[in-house]
Amino acid sequence: MKREYVDVTIDGREIRAPRGEKILWVALENGIEIPHLCALKGQDPPWGGCRLCWVEVEGRGLVTACTEPVRQGMVVHTDTPSVRRLQRRALELLLADHPMDCKNCPKRDRCELLKWMRFLKVKVPKDLRPFPEKRYPVDTSHPVLNFDPNKCILCGRCVWIAKEVVGCGVFDFVWRGYDIRISTFMGKPLKDTDCNGCLKCAEVCPVGALWGK
Amino acid sequence: MNWEEIKSRAEAKWSALEEAPLHIRIGTPTCGRAAGALETLRIFRERLQREGLDVPLTEVGCMGLCFAEPLVIISKPESGFPPICYKNVRFDEAQKLINDFILGDDPCLEIALGTVELGQDDAPVIPELERFEIERRLVLKNCGWIDPEDIDHYIARGGYSALRDVLLGKDPEQVIAEIGQAGLRGRGGAGFLTSRKWASCRRQKSEPKYLICNADEGDPGAFMDRVVLESDPHSVIEGMIIAGYAIGAAKGFIYTRMEYPLVIERLQKALEQARAYGLLGEDIFGSGFSFDIEVIRGAGAFICGESTAMTYSIEGKRGMPRVRPPRSVERGLWGQPTVVNNVKTLALVTRIMEMGPDEFREIGTRSSPGTAVFALAGKVKQIGLCEVPMGTTLRQVIFEVGGGVPEGKEFKAVQIGGPAGGCVGEEALDLPVDFDSFRAAGAIMGSGGMIVLDNSNCMVETARFFLDFLSREDCGKCSFGRLGIKQLLMILEDITAGRGKEGDIELLEGLCEDLLQGCLCNLGRTAPNPVLTTLRYFRSEYEAHIRERRCPALVCRDLIAYFILPEKCEKGCDHCVLTCPTEAIVTDERTRKKRILQDKCVKCGTCLEVCPPEYSAVIKVSPPEKVKELESREA
Amino acid sequence: MSKEEVEAVEEVLESCPRERRHLIRILQAIQEKLGYLPEDALREVALFFGISPAEVYGVATFYNQFRFVPLGKFHIVVCMGTACHSMGGALVLDAFQRELGIKVGEVTPDRKYSLERVGCIGCCTQAPVVVVNGRIFPKMTPYKVEEVLAKLKAEDELGGDKEQG
């Protein structure tokens, strides 16, 4: 198959990239870091929910890199003050809503929240009002998979994997607004669902919400 | 039946009504029903039957004069009067009208709102009302004058003739060009050029294409689309068929709210009647063009008014918006090219085809041609709908069309553009209403809700109310929407509850700026507007709440207290004591004067409401500590 | 589900084309018949469309209209649209909560009353309004709340008598 390529400039580097590819994947493949929490390659349309992967495109302004395709001659900056401001704020909001129980977290060694906190030099914000504490039960009923909805940051990766890749449909978003959460059918324990324990959802979960035993 | 037969039969039916010795119109839209219109209808029906009078009684929609409902229009040519419109017709008025005017010859002018004439564009007007000097009714042309459940009324007033001319005489490109020439901008709020949207959909190669009529009018305090669909559904249906033809769609959807049962009922009837006449379905007017419409009943989600969310909802999914581009015209319903147009936009399409683009263009302003429909509510005398040329000032709309604020109150602000619009104060009243001026004032045109606020409304509480609404209705998908809106709300809740802190205003402003840029969809990106506009026009109220724990408008419950002025309280009166839901009011055994036990009071305001006006002994004070001052003064 | 409920769900499913887009319509139809969406009904619907029950539950919870427990005999809806709010709708809602001893979204233990708030029902001229089983009560005040409840109670007792007779 003939592929078409375009030339773009990211942070001053000239890069040849497949036409139509999203800025995020082009940057990452070329070793340029862009903070992101919800994007998964292959999602169509991209989810775009975490609002972390901001970049500035000349002539176009601030866009999320996971949704914006590269175009010929595009000039992209990943490290401008307005990019960082939005990224920090988005991350701060997520942190203010996340139980910072890192000591006991099964994912503490590969937590993506921590990774981007370090990258963006962000701390748990003090000026924001603390969000109401979540007290959902932790589901350890399944022989292989554990689920702690309190730690979930609503990135939706597990829902997409379950629906589009594995096809088990165990999880979906339920309710909405601040009350939105990831849930099994009517909040049933995982052992009573069609989960076969493939752990694909736990692999993509960026935080300690889903993990294998 | 062919079109000529349909049309001449409809015209005969209509003129029989027009020329009848007596004809009674009663408005029974949802707003009329809430005011008791069905009861009025029943009274007329029963009484006429009892009197053995065979008088045609037509149920019509809403003329927009909701403050005067139930509304009755009586035509009695032999009286020498034009049709007369009566206001607030309930039991007594109905009996009086039947006794004195229908059976007698006294036109009961003392309960009349005015006479009805057909004015410009053939729309009914009441010359006695000042508002009609300003109003120009295009969208509302038939509203309140025809029976919305009888397609013949619509046809007799010229309906579906424009569609026929389009299908038999114009190609789709020409229709788009004329809509472009008219300069029509979408009435849903953003004001995007309709012709550009249509042309871009027409250009798409992928088939099939879809048309969606956005009737998911979720803005609290807005009811324009409800009135139009309940009062004149065919104007919208005709516009949809024209739009479908122009963009190359064979299927249209009307997405409306489950809270609007009468809209759904009347739409279904209208669609059936149009199908029966061959105006919908296969090969309309023998033109070869086929089009049909399905009504979708939303299930209660404000966010579904956003076009990408609406397409997901029609597909039977969660209505969570997706990132644009691609826009709906490229990738909409089931991934196919889709145009989403507002109810009023589509009704105006019909009007433009009837009157011609040039005449339409002459109405309104250069950049925003045509008219704007507003729903006026809140602290204004003539609550209801109005339609004015774009460029009319807000002051004219509120004070001349709406009659201004009721006596004894003072105008404070007007909230425009729906929950994510803005509150603008006195200094913005001379703004002309059009898409661009509103944006400059920090508000958005929105779809036309206009809530007038007076000095008894607290602006911080108003902002809190809208953020509360938006946070309930936010979809939860993106971090800025889910957490940012909630964070704004939590800060506002603190401020209105007297827990505001120094620095909160700056924190609000910073967050607002981030949300404006950071949210995924337009709901989120406009959510800061209520906060930003109230901060811009009423900053001192925020400061009073935060620094003095005082609510200047005496609204925020944690910052006020009720107090009974002993010098005004009447010994013999027990109204407040008897009605207080928490038994918080006690009578002093010696003086028989009443006193409020502050720790039992839930601040419901009942005592203030029931205290007879000749005493007016109950007052509100802020901050609540003021009560102690007043009490010690007594001691 | 009871036998009647199972039959009602079957009837709804039989009358509907098996296209995914009709999911919301079907949930509406079931709720119209049963007053709520029982767990087993959601499972049946999932089976009917060949999608996961979690997806059906996800759609149903997204929309305000759907509920998963039966409503009270009198379903009280307080409008909290802008106009109603500016005319004191919150005080009316408070009064109902106080008088009924339940919060928004709850049902009284005797299943007689359920309470809900709604965005706007488009009757802004009559603000603040309350709707009970489709009947509109205009220009409400906290004081009138007691009257409305007394009226409903009387109707309930009257209805009860009829059933006995």
Number of H- or I-type helical stretches of chain B: 25
Structural class of chain C: alpha+beta
Regarding quaternary structure, how should these chains be classified?
Answer: heterotrimer
Write down the CATH topology of the largest domain in chain C: Glutaredoxin
Largest sheet of chain C, described in full?
4 strands, mixed
Number of strands of chain B: 20
- The total count of strands of chain C amounts to 4
Fill in the keyword field for this structure:
heterotrimer, B: 635 residues, alpha/beta, Glutaredoxin, Rossmann fold, Ubiquitin-like (UB roll), 5 domains, 5-stranded mixed β-sheet, 25 helices, 20 strands, 14% strand, globular, C: 165 residues, alpha+beta, Arc Repressor Mutant, subunit A, 4-stranded mixed β-sheet, 7 helices
Explain the layout of strands and helices.
The complex is a heterotrimer of chains A (213), B (635) and C (165).
Chain A: E1 5-10, E2 13-18, H1 23-29, E3 54-57, E4 61-64, E5 75-77, H2 81-96, H3 112-120, E6 145-147, H4 157-166, E7 172-174, E8 181-183, H5 200-204, E9 210-212
Helix pairs in contact in A: 2-3
Chain B: H1 3-19, E1 23-27, H2 30-34, H3 37-50, E2 57-60, E3 72-75, E4 84-86, H4 91-102, E5 112-115, E6 117-118, E7 124-125, H5 131-134, H6 151-156, H7 161-169, H8 172-182, H9 194-203, E8 210-215, H10 224-231, H11 233-247, E9 251-256, H12 261-276, E10 292-297, H13 307-314, E11 338-342, H14 343-355, H15 357-362, E12 371-378, E13 384-389, H16 394-401, E14 411-416, E15 422-425, H17 435-440, E16 449-454, H18 459-473, H19 479-496, H20 504-518, H21 522-526, H22 529-548, E17 561-564, H23 575-579, E18 585-587, E19 594-596, H24 606-610, E20 618-621, H25 626-634
Parallel strand pairs in B: 1-2, 8-9, 8-11, 9-10, 12-16
Antiparallel strand pairs in B: 1-3, 3-4, 4-5, 6-7, 12-13, 14-15, 14-16, 17-20, 18-19
Helix pairs in contact in B: 3-4, 7-11, 7-14, 8-9, 8-11, 10-12, 11-14, 18-19, 18-22, 19-20, 20-22
Chain C: H1 3-14, H2 23-34, H3 39-49, H4 53-62, E1 74-79, H5 82-86, H6 89-100, E2 113-118, E3 130-132, E4 135-137, H7 142-164
Parallel strand pairs in C: 1-2
Antiparallel strand pairs in C: 1-3, 3-4
Helix pairs in contact in C: 1-2, 1-3, 2-3, 3-4, 6-7
Describe what you observe in this structure.
The complex is a heterotrimer of chains A (213), B (635) and C (165). In chain A, 22% of the residues lie in helices and 16% in strands. Chain A is an alpha+beta fold and 213 residues long. Chain A folds into 2 domains: 1-131, Ubiquitin-like (UB roll); 133-213, Alpha-Beta Plaits, CATH 3.30.70.20. In chain A, the strands form 3 sheets. Chain A has a 5-stranded mixed beta sheet, sandwiched between helices. In chain A, strands 6-9 form a two-stranded antiparallel ribbon. Chain A has a two-stranded antiparallel ribbon with strand order 7-8. Chain B is α/β, with parallel strands linked by helices and 635 residues long. Helices cover 41% and strands 14% of the residues of chain B. A 5-stranded mixed beta sheet of chain B has the order 2-1-3-4-5, with helices on one face. In chain B, strands 13-12-16-14-15 form a 5-stranded mixed beta sheet. In chain B, strands 10-9-8-11 form a 4-stranded parallel beta sheet, sandwiched between helices. By secondary structure, chain C is α+β, with helices and mostly antiparallel strands. Chain C folds into 2 domains: 3-62, Arc Repressor Mutant, subunit A (Orthogonal Bundle); 74-164, 3-Layer(aba) Sandwich (Glutaredoxin), CATH 3.40.30.10. Helices cover 52% and strands 11% of the residues of chain C. Chain C is built from 7 helices and 4 strands. In chain C, strands 2-1-3-4 form a 4-stranded mixed beta sheet, covered by helices on one side. In chain C, strand 3 (130-132) and strand 4 form a beta hairpin. Chains in contact: A-B, A-C, B-C. Chains B and C meet through helix 2, strand 12, strand 16, helix 18 and helix 24 of B and helix 2, helix 4, helix 5, helix 6 and helix 7 of C.
